[in-house]
Amino acid sequence: MSEAKQLNLNRSQSMLHLISANVAYCLWPRGSGKTSGGIGPRLQHLSNVMPRSKCILYTDTFERIS
What is the per-residue pLDDT for 64? Predict the structure, then answer.
């Protein structure tokens, strides 16, 4: 059994999860929480609701996603 953790989201992260669109383009600047509040929770949610689905994370450079 895993422990529950509280996640504090900023406005952009909250909108991403509330809208939950099929396709999302997040042009967020560096340090805006792409990994911790955007990509991570989104992939966790998608893997729970669609366990055998395929997800693609695309970026033109590694610096844009990190």
Answer: 66
